[in-house]
């Protein structure tokens, strides 16, 4: 608990870091704080906290915090070294959605009738990740199970494919619990393929736990582990600008049908940006897990699992929204005001999660009136179910070709290998 408490704030503004460290000291969540360069004194703190390098001993780990914002190549990144074994690098940019989640949340509530939304990023904080983990353990949630089974079956081919490209970077977008990635890394390691695995995700705690368990369970000899905290957008920027990424051959993995949380056009544009960011000669290929199931009854069961974990997860966006917006938003985002509602949208090939207002709701937030009518819908997250032709349509405008596919015939789940056209 201790480290989650303040480390999640470590990489935001220095002032927040100081406040968080101070509180952590007060609550005896950390053992000690050591600083290397005195800049700012915090009254009452046992030590002086600075805007430079900070060493913190928590009850479990030792963290080193480096403020590298003065370095031109670092995109305002700061890195936390944990016990010297793997790094978690904060690549969030100042104006990016993750850092401006509050603004985005308010923006979503100000949209016209039935276009209102809560940003899906709200679902992926610590608590949201735990709820999602509960969902993937359910036998009804077939996407996770089917992709895992497919990977177990085809992991030799997939690892050989990655190794054959000579990639020395494997970047995974939205890495989550990394359980499935572990299968691929184990095989790559056995092929004596030296590379660095970069796990990108938005949530620091999730990255930390997942990397630690990968490291403990796999004992890799040829693969370095590193995590990037940020969004897909931040990762595209990082690829384009960081010294660390420049000139290295890369494979990008995107598993778990996460790509289909985006609209098809948006997803295609993002793939295009990833290709451009590295220079086509560096991009070896994308390996992307996409759910193409068209069996509506199976989909309905998977997205409303018995026991209600999916509903709790979707509702969690309300709590996360309240945390972003503060007490002013309670009148609108209080849990009792909303009913869970979700539906398969056949036109868009996607399952859409909504909350519906039980009554007309109003609040004044940051001086602006927010009004939601009774029965109005608030969108949270969609999960697309894309067929092979959808994938073709998405990737060809980006100069990518579908070069290989490993699929599960009964459900229509595919693991696609996309690469730059010759
Ligand atoms: C559907 S889960 C998939 C997790 C994992 N890849 C798997 O297959 O089990 C989506 C993951 O993407 C992350 N994520 C969601 N939106 C993101 C964004 N905009 N940028 C980076 N990561 C994101 C979430 O935190 C979550 O871990």
Automatic annotation (TrEMBL):
Please give one Pfam family short name. Methyltransf_33
Domain Histidine-specific methyltransferase SAM-dependent: where? 102-419
Alphabetically sorted, this entry's keywords are: Methyltransferase, Transferase
Can you name one GO molecular function term for this protein?
A: methyltransferase activity
Q: What InterPro entries does the annotation carry?
A: EgtD_Methyltrsf_superfamily, MeTrfase_dom, SAM-dependent_MTases_sf, SAM_MeTrfase_EasF-type_put
UniProt protein name:
Histidine-specific methyltransferase SAM-dependent domain-containing protein
Q: Does the keyword Transit peptide apply?
A: no
- What's the domain of life for this entry? Eukaryota
Gene Ontology BP, a term:
methylation
């Amino acid at each position: 608990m201790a480290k989650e408490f303040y480390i999640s704030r470590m990489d935001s503004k220095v002032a927040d870091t100081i406040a968080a460290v101070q509180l952590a000291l007060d609550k005896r969540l950390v053992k000690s704080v050591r600083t290397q360069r005195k800049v700012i004194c915090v009254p009452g703190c046992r030590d002086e906290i600075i805007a430079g390098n900070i060493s913190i001993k928590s009850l479990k780990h030792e963290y080193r915090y480096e403020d590298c914002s003065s370095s031109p190549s670092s995109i305002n990144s700061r890195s936390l070294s944990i016990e010297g074994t793997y790094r978690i690098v904060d690549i969030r940019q100042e104006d990016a959605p993750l850092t401006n989640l509050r603004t985005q949340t308010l923006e979503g509530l100000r949209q016209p009738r039935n276009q209102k939304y809560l940003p899906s990023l709200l679902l992926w904080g610590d608590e949201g990740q735990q709820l999602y983990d509960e969902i993937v353990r359910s036998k009804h949630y077939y996407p996770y199970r089917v992709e895992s089974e497919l990977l177990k079956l085809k992991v030799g081919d997939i690892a050989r494919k990655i190794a054959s490209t000579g990639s020395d970077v494997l970047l995974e977008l939205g890495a989550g619990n990394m359980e499935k990635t572990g299968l691929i890394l184990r095989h790559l390691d056995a092929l004596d393929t030296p590379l660095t695995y970069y796990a990108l995700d938005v949530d620091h705690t999730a990255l930390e736990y997942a990397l630690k368990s990968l490291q403990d369970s796999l004992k890799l000899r040829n693969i370095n582990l590193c995590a990037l905290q940020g969004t897909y957008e931040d990762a595209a920027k990082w690829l384009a600008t960081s010294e660390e990424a420049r000139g290295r051959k890369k494979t990008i993995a995107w598993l778990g049908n996460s790509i289909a949380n985006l609209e098809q056009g948006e997803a295609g544009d993002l793939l295009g940006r990833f290709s451009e960011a590295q220079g086509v000669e560096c991009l070896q290929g994308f390996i992307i897990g996409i759910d193409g199931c068209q069996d509506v009854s199976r989909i309905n069961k998977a997205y409303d699992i018995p026991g209600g974990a999916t509903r709790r997860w979707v509702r969690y966006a309300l709590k996360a929204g309240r945390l972003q917006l503060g007490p002013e938003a309670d009148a609108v985002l209080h849990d009792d005001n909303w009913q869970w509602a979700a539906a398969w949208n056949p036109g868009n090939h996607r399952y859409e999660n909504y909350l519906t207002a039980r009554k007309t709701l109003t609040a004044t937030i940051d001086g602006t009136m927010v009004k939601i009518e009774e029965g109005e819908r608030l969108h949270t997250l969609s999960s697309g179910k894309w067929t092979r032709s959808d994938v073709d349509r998405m990737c060809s405008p980006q100069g990518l070709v579908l070069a290989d596919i490993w699929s599960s015939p009964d459900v229509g789940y595919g693991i696609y290998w996309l690469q730059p056209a010759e």
